[in-house]
Specification:
Chain lengths: 213, 978
């Protein structure tokens, strides 16, 4: 799981290497984990008092600003495996197409969202459904994924207007590379109600260290 | 006798009529309340089922998403499938109820602010007009379910009222209220059980009366009345109204108390016309009963007369017969009353109300059982619970059957029933069941075994017996069923092997909820045998435990053969009340008829003598059962705020003669107060005295103790047996404005409220049993008596005992009598004594003492006796001295005549009058200090035997304040003397 995320972050960074030089790194102070870690570590979306977050906690750090929209964006995936979304939290750039493959053995899923940022209903589909059901996310915002059949399943897609974002590791460390020089707001999404921000001045070739308390 | 009965009937009529309307109103109101209570119970059930439904609804992913993800516009599409079964489907008829919820006519969601979320497709959720939909909105989301009503198509032919329930929907994640579901139903009928010509019920909503059964003009009348009553801010009320010239009773009660929806009232109008007609019929029935009674009375008096000359042996036999008859009548009356009581509140809804929650419970468990991936242990537990719900239904069925029997509602439709196939059916069932016990079952029954009964109930009896034989058996045991016909009865015997029923339990096995010794191990609820026995008895038979010892227990049920059907049970018709009334009067009269020999024996038993007859003691007494009914405030010394009073009184007299010269007596009473009140019971020693008579010619005797005054002649015959009337003459019971605990005020006002009556004083209070010493004697044609007592003639009972009042200010009284011949007596009485109690001291003007305030009474009495006539008259001039102001003078008298029509039957009339003098107050104004009044009494009495007597009295009283102060009283007194 973590490998997948890291891969996604690294891939995203490499794509912008050609015209960006700055780097931001640092640490986001994450909330305490709700439950003791288990052996087979899995992220899940939990709600507490109406606030959605991942457990164990993760944050998404992104650089806010207006950036040219790339011609084509890579397709992302949120799979369903063992009655859970994988990954549980997915940051994407506006316009990204996300596929929802069913990786179970014999179980149907019916993924839908009533979130204002994206309403859709994929209907019931089997494990080997072809083509893989997918959606394009055109509006920035938080999308809550649910399954009509399995009421406990929750997933989050954070649709961002920027191509510069990264998911922290469990300790809260992050690193954004290939950033354009300039004055920006650096934001850290911690949960559905908490987003922290920090202004940054980026100069070509430099590395700025930002910690979110 | 005839007149007595006629009087009795008249009294009965008077009581019945007086109370009928009030009782009717009370009954109706109680019924109305019971109906509404039933409605509220059903509503609660409905609400509970719906609330559960809402809880399960919000965890459904789509509804959850719509609510939590700020997508309320998707609520209806998401809920459509989930709530489809709630909605009535016009095209496809469905069962009326789904798990306790009736089909809804419409539903809507409310958003966070309580506003209605408009449905995208109203057809799917029940179409409503915009104004109707607007009525569903609430000011805020409710914390609990709210009940409201929705008036639709008002004023048109399709006018209906729907009941609506609003249920809060909370977020499962934040716990906040985020929406509400409002569901509309066809309302429950409140008074659907009654006939259409009787009560009409409707609903009052937002100033609009929905009562289609009434014509427009009547609705307008009720509209006005409701507006007026609601303006008085009453949540429930009843009021008489007139609609189209006919009298009606109007009840209303808020249907949705404490609801956030607008108040809605259930309104019932009940026509009194038919009730009055019924009352009229009842009157004739009572008259009929009176006629029968008269007949019985004649026969009874004839018998009594005959019996007087009959040999003693016959008396004894009659007495036994009478006793048996009385027992039968008593038993019949008791069972009748019990039956009436039980059946009165039995509701056919009971089955519904008890069974619905069980059905809901069962459905819930079934739903749980259908879930996938249930743990086997949990599944087993749920299955056991599921099984228990069926058992619960069984218990409810049995209880309902028993309660129907208790209420006398179960009627056996007698017919010929063949028991053999019933037994065989059960044996077949038994073979189909897994039988871990391996029982050997044998039945020896004739091919048709016919009995008289109803198949389903006879089958229930057999089932219970056979089930028990199986349940309480031992492994490898036996069951044996046999039958025989004997002495015109059919006996069916069921025997089974197994541990016997312990001897100490055997007498109780037919009681409800009783179980055998090893009952705890065996399924059942202890109702079976009770049910079986009750059913057997209803069949005119019996169920008995024949034996239970060692390894064999045998029950035997007896039935009647088919040609013999039991006599039909007492017809339960309108005659019911008449029958009860007759039975009651019979009960009163029977002791009278049979009392003679019994009471004679009691008399003998209560006389003791010893020491060579030097000491003789006799205990005697009277039991008085008095009833009063009056219009206006209770007259005389009767103290109650209601308009009727029952006043039982037991007086016990002990008379002891010690040698020729010493005599002592006591009178002890158990009653509700010295004078008739509605207080609780009390026991008092009213009279006790020792009298020494030194000379046998009676020229002188000395008496000391607490005893009746020597003044006047009425006191000599004041006990209930001797007094031709029920109450006392006016001078002895009309309280004046004099109080003995405080000085008279400047103006003699009237006495306060009737409840304060006992704080004021009459001229003479009853027989005035004050404490003191008296001398009395007779010399030639003259007799004399004088006494010195601790309290005045006017003193109240509380002053009489020596412990309550000392002799600091004694009262001296005396009477001188002259008896020129056996026809006439003349008497002159006088009394003088302080009338204040010590408490009054503090209220007296400075310098005055209690001894300055005297009551002075002068009395004259005349009596006359000639043939069957007796006449009495007494005149009292009384003065309550008030030094410094005017004395308060009053004059009271009565004239009384009694005539004995027969040695047993007498009639009496009495004229009473009292005048009050003028007093001058501090301002110099002169005015009467009391209300002049007169009273006429008429009475009739009948002595059934030397021990029993019945008196009836009617009094009419009027005082100087004109027509307003007219009072009627009816009194009856039944006295048993022993």
């Amino acid at each position: 799981m973590r490998l997948v995320l890291l891969f996604a972050v690294a891939f995203g960074g490499m794509a912008k290497l050609a015209f960006a030089q700055a780097t931001v790194e640092g640490r986001v102070e994450l909330p305490k984990s709700k439950s003791a870690p288990v052996m087979t570590k899995r992220y899940e979306i939990v709600t507490s008092g109406g606030v959605l977050a991942t457990n164990p906690p993760l944050a998404v750090v992104y650089l806010e600003g207006s950036f040219p929209k790339p011609a084509n964006l890579p397709t992302k995936q949120v799979a369903q495996k063992d009655l859970a979304f994988l990954p549980a939290l997915l940051p994407i750039q506006v316009g990204t197409k996300v596929e929802f493959p069913n990786l179970e053995k014999d179980t149907y899923h019916n993924i839908f969202s009533y979130s204002p940022a994206k309403r859709f209903d994929l209907g019931r589909y089997r494990a080997d459904e072809k083509p893989v059901p997918s959606q394009i996310f055109d509006v920035a915002g938080l999308v809550t994924l649910r399954c009509d059949i399995h009421e406990h399943m929750r997933g989050l897609i954070l649709v961002l207007a920027t191509p510069h974002f990264a998911v922290t590791d469990e300790a809260g460390h992050f690193k954004l590379t290939g950033l354009p020089a300039g004055h920006y707001d650096l934001k850290a999404w911690v949960d559905s109600r908490t987003t922290r921000e920090h202004p940054v001045d980026l100069k070509s070739g430099s590395t700025v260290h930002v910690d979110f308390p | 006798m005839m007149l007595v009965v006629a009087g009795l009937t008249a009294a009965g009529l008077y009581f019945a009529q007086r109370n009928a309307t009030g009782a009717l109103q009370q009954n109706l109101q109680r019924d109305f309340q019971a109906d509404l209570d039933g409605l509220h119970k059903v509503e609660e059930l409905r609400y509970a089922a719906l609330a559960e439904r809402c809880r399960t609804l919000v965890v459904k992913p789509r509804i959850h998403a719509a609510l939590e993800d700020n997508a309320l516009d998707l609520l209806y599409p998401s809920a459509k499938d989930e709530l489809r079964d709630i909605m009535q489907d016009e095209a496809r008829p469905q069962p009326d109820q789904i798990a306790g919820i009736p089909h809804a006519r419409f539903y809507r969601f409310l958003d966070r602010t309580g506003a209605v979320l408009p449905p995208p497709n109203p057809g799917e959720v029940g179409a409503l007009r915009p104004d109707e939909e607007a009525q569903l909105a609430l000011k805020a989301l409710p914390q609990t379910g709210q009940i409201g009503y929705l008036l639709r198509n008002a004023g048109t032919a399709e006018e209906t009222i729907d009941e609506i329930i609003a249920l809060p929907i909370g977020s499962t994640e934040t716990g906040e209220l985020i929406a509400a579901l409002v569901i509309g139903f066809k309302p429950l009928e409140v008074a659907q059980k009654r006939g259409p010509e009787e009560m009409k019920s409707g609903i009052w909503i937002n100033g609009w009366l929905h009562l289609p059964a009434l014509p427009e003009s009547a609705r307008a009348t009720i509209d006005r009345e409701m507006t007026r009553l609601l303006a008085a801010n009453q949540a429930e009320h009843s009021s008489p109204v007139e609609i189209g010239g006919d009298p009606y009773l109007l009840f209303f009660k808020r249907l949705n108390p404490d609801s956030a929806f607008p108040p809605v009232y259930e309104v019932c109008v009940y026509p009194l016309k038919s009730a009055l007609a019924r009352q009229h019929r009842l009157r004739w029935q009572i008259l009929g009963a009176g006629g029968i009674l008269m007949l019985i009375g004649f026969v009874a008096s004839h018998l009594i007369a005959k019996r007087l000359s009959a040999p003693v042996a016959k008396l004894a036999i009659d007495s036994e017969e009478n006793r048996a008859r009385r027992k039968r009548v008593e038993a019949a009356l008791a069972s009748k009353q019990e039956e009436l009581q039980r059946s009165s509140r039995f509701s056919a809804d009971a089955s519904h109300q008890l069974k619905t929650p069980v059905t809901v419970l069962r459905a819930g468990i079934e739903e749980l059982l259908r879930r996938e991936n249930l743990e086997p242990a949990l599944y087993d537990e749920l299955s056991a619970l599921h099984h228990q719900t069926y058992r619960l239904t069984g218990v409810i069925d049995d209880l309902l059957l028993l309660s129907r029997m208790d209420a006398g509602r179960l009627k056996i439709e007698f017919g010929a029933v063949d028991l053999t196939p019933l037994v065989e059916e059960w044996l077949d069932d038994l073979n189909a069941l897994p039988d871990p016990l391996g029982l050997d079952v044998k039945a020896h029954l004739p091919a048709p075994l016919l009995i008289s009964g109803e198949r389903r109930y006879a089958s229930l009896i057999l089932q219970n017996l056979l089930e028990n034989a199986r349940k309480y058996n031992r492994p490898g045991g036996r069951i044996h069923v046999s039958a025989r016909e004997e002495e015109g009865s059919v006996y069916l015997t069921v025997g089974n092997s197994g541990p016997p029923i312990p001897a100490e339990i055997q007498p109780h096995i037919f009681e409800r909820f009783s179980r055998g010794a090893n009952g705890e191990k065996i399924a059942g609820h202890g109702l079976g045998l009770n049910l079986a026995r009750e059913l057997a008895r209803l069949h005119g038979g019996e169920l008995l435990l024949v034996s239970s010892q060692e390894d064999w227990t045998e029950f035997e049920v007896r039935f009647r053969p088919p040609e013999q059907t039991p006599a039909p049970a007492l017809q339960r018709t309108g005659l019911k009340s008449t029958a009860s009334a007759v039975a009651f009067i019979m009960l009163c009269l029977l002791p009278a008829a049979r009392g003679q020999d019994f009471l004679d024996r009691v008399d003998e038993a209560l006389t003791f003598s010893g020491f060579n007859n030097i000491v003789r003691t006799r205990v005697s007494g009277t039991l008085d059962l008095e009833g009063y009914a009056f219009s206006g405030p209770a007259p005389g010394l009767i103290l109650t705020t209601s308009d009727a009073l029952f006043n039982p009184r037991l007086s016990l007299f002990v008379d002891a003669q010690l040698g020729p010269n010493v005599y002592a007596f006591t009178q002890t009473r158990i009653d509700r107060g010295f004078d008739p009140t509605d207080h609780g019971a009390q026991i008092r020693l009213d009279e006790y005295a020792v009298r020494i008579t030194p000379w046998e010619d009676g020229r002188f005797s000395l008496q000391a103790g607490q005893f009746a005054t020597v003044v006047g002649t009425w006191v000599g015959r004041h006990l209930s047996w001797d007094n031709p009337f029920v109450n006392a003459p006016l001078p002895y019971e009309n309280v004046t404005a004099i109080e003995d605990k405080s000085a008279p005020s400047y103006l003699f006002l009237e006495i306060g409220t009737p409840s304060e009556k006992y704080e004021y004083n009459p001229v003479i209070w009853g027989p005035s049993y004050a404490t003191g010493v008296s001398v009395a004697g007779r010399i030639g044609r003259f007799d004399y008596a004088a006494e010195i007592k601790n309290a005045s003639l006017s003193s109240r009972p509380e002053s009489w005992p020596v412990t309550r009042m000392d002799f600091d200010h004694p009262t001296v009284s005396g009477r001188l009598g002259f008896r020129p011949n056996e026809m006439w007596t003349f008497g002159f009485s006088a009394s003088d004594g302080a009338y204040f109690r010590p408490e009054a001291m503090g209220t007296l003007p400075f310098g005055r003492g209690i001894g300055d305030y005297h009551e002075r009474v002068l009395g004259q009495d005349i009596s006359f006796a000639w043939h069957h006539w007796q006449l009495w008259a007494e005149f009292f001039e009384a003065r309550f001295e008030v030094p410094g102001f005017s004395d308060a003078d009053t004059f009271a008298y009565y004239l009384e005549a009694k005539y004995k029509f027969t040695p047993q039957f007498f009639g009496a009339i009495r004229w009473n009058q009292q005048f009050f003098g003028d007093v001058t107050n501090v301002y110099g104004d002169s005015a009467s200090w009391g209300r002049d009044l007169w009273r006429a009494d008429i009475a009739a009495g009948y002595r059934f035997t030397a021990h029993t007597q019945l008196k009836l009295q009617y009094s009419f009283q009027r005082d100087s304040y004109g027509l307003r102060d007219v009072a009627h009283m009816i009194a009856a007194q039944f006295t048993v003397r022993f």
